[in-house]
Amino acid sequence: MAGFLLGAAGMFAVTYSTQAILPQLGRAFHVSPAEAGLTISIVVLALACGSWIWGPLSDRYGRKRSIVLASSLLVAPSIGAALAPTFAVLLVCRALQGLCMPGLLTAGVPYITEVYAPRIGGRAMGYYVTALIAGGLMGRVGVALLAAAFGWRWAIGLLALLPLAAAFVMHRSLVDVPLLERNHSRRHALRRQLRNRPLLQATATGSAFFFMFVGTFSYVVYRLERPPFRFGSAAGSLIFVLWFLGVLGPALGRLADRIGWRRLAFSALALAAAGIALTLPARLPTLVVGLAFVTLANWGGVTAAQLGVAAATNVDRGTASAVYFSIYYFTGAIGGYVPGLAWERFRWEGVALTAWVVLAAAAGVLAFGRKQAYG
User: Fold this and answer.
1) Average confidence (pLDDT) over 169-191
2) Topology of 2-171+196-374 in CATH?
């Protein structure tokens, strides 16, 4: 499983490589905070679009081929982003990165379901989420520290080594999954999954967590630069060390095996709402504790949602994964921009309000789904 986890970590590191250095990008290209946030939004929006390519592709041509190809294609635009002469070129390279990444995501979740979950259950998804967290730490804390020492271009350019190494390792180590026989068209498969209520409920849950998490951690770096905190970019980026809570991923997967993914998702939604409330006072201890709650809730909620996707269907899993990730990343794209507008007008209270709204909406969808299932 090591090669697959390396690929997942490399993909996630590249995805969020600009998040901790948004103020530096804003100064380098003379753009506003919300415009700098587009370097996050555009990559996740491209991820949403690319999911419709890579999900069905993995159903037709194989999970391993899709995963290895996606990791290989990610190298070139990662180097291009580091060399971008203008903000517009940077956005183009970020969009190309986003189009490559779904091969590691939309094929990754069904690959886990088919290869690893039969042997180790929910822990397999937990290990996967933990690998994403490790990649996120490299893309945030690692990039911020390297940017402080060598400049942001070197920091994000060096990340190209991760997908390059992962492609080589995965080509040699991943197990091929036999393709299932298909007796219907791609359009029929899509219609079937768009009517799949458990899939849509899991999608709404995961998307809400992603919106909340992207918005909170994208704009907390701006808050940490302002009074009363006044932290520099390198010091402020250390808030992402909270991602180490992701080591609990396998334990959260086992918990979902015992109590069900829905109960885990409800618990995570409540914890996230409480964590956002704790971040409101302008005090570092409550801010750190609140963001710790938000982080733990996010990983629990995302693990639950992806287990919900895996349980929602036994056929056309690549297409089901495409439905999940396209909506998930489209919502994340909004989460990288809309909280920025709230920050510009209402500061941190505005960011918190946007998070509460989407968490409440997800709780309503999930509660309605449970009522339909048991009522």
Assistant:
1) 71
2) Growth Hormone; Chain: A; (1.20.1250)
pLDDT tens-digit readout, 116-163:
766 766 677 777 777 877 887 788 778 888 888 888 999 999 999 999
d(CA 318, CA 296): 28
More confident residue, 271 or 10: 271
Secondary structure letter of residue 158 according to DSSP:
G
Per the listing, tokens 């999970």 go with: 63
In the block, residue with structure tokens 């359009």: 187
Q: Distance between the two ends of the chain, CA-based, in angstroms? A: 40
> Measured in whole angstroms, how far is the alpha carbon of residue 44 from the centre of its chain?
8
Q: Rounded distance, CA 299 to CA 276, Å?
A: 15
Q: What is the DSSP string of 209-277?
A: HHHHHHHHHHHHHHHHHSTTT---HHHHHGGGGGGGGGGGHHHHHHHHHHH-HHHHHHHHHHHHHHHHH
Question: SS3 letters for 2-25?
Answer: HHHHHHHHHHHHHHCCCHHHHHHH
Work out the number of other CB atoms within 10 angstroms of the CB of residue 129. 24
Using CA atoms, how far apart are residues 303 and 297, in angstroms rounded to an integer? 10
Between 284-312 and 261-278, two packed helices, what is the crossing angle to 10 degrees?
A: 160
C-beta neighbour count of 258 within 10 angstroms: 9
Measured on CA atoms in the order 189, 190, 191, 197, is the torsion positive or negative? positive
pLDDT of residue 120: 63
pLDDT in tens, 77-113: 999 999 999 999 999 999 999 999 888 877 777 777 7
Can you give the residue ranges of every domain in the chain? Answer: 2-171+196-374
Q: What is the pLDDT of residue 85?
A: 94
Distance between CA atoms of 19 and 217, rounded to whole angstroms? 8
DSSP of 42-110: HHHHHHHHHHHHHHHHHHHH-HHHHHHHHHHHTHHHHHHHHH-SSHHHHHHHHHHHHHHTHHHHTTHHH
